[in-house]
Design brief:
The protein has about 100 residues and is mostly helical. It has 5 helices and no strands. The N and C termini lie far apart (about 45 Å). The mean pLDDT is about 85.
Length: about 100
């Protein structure tokens, strides 16, 4: 069960960390009504070595938290509910990318 908790908490930390990172790096300085290319997202995430280091750091931090601090079940429910926000953003992004790709044909 600890492996599932480590994975879940690591994904939660990483997803909210990625949202904060993209906001601070991209959207904070953009003027209103500006589009961002998917290549920019790739450059800030999968092509960036610090993003991958952040992934490892989030899972390491999750491991330390789960081992040193036993969380009550209601914390896991709260994490599951709040994880719906990044999952919703990811699914919205993927649907929009599919529509753009379909429209380009």
């Amino acid at each position: 069960m600890d492996i599932v908790k480590n994975f879940f908490l690591g994904i939660w930390l990483f997803s909210f960390g990625t949202i904060a990172y993209l906001y601070l790096a991209l959207y904070r300085r953009l003027p209103p009504s500006t589009a961002v290319s998917p290549r920019v997202f790739a450059a800030y995430t999968t092509y960036n070595v610090f993003w991958w280091v952040g992934l490892v750091a989030c899972f390491a931090l999750a491991f330390v938290i789960v081992k040193s601090w036993p969380l009550k079940p209601y914390w896991w429910v709260a994490l599951a509910v709040t994880e719906l926000f990044p999952v919703g953003l990811l699914s919205l992004f993927l649907v929009l990318m599919f529509k753009v790709k379909e429209a380009a044909k």
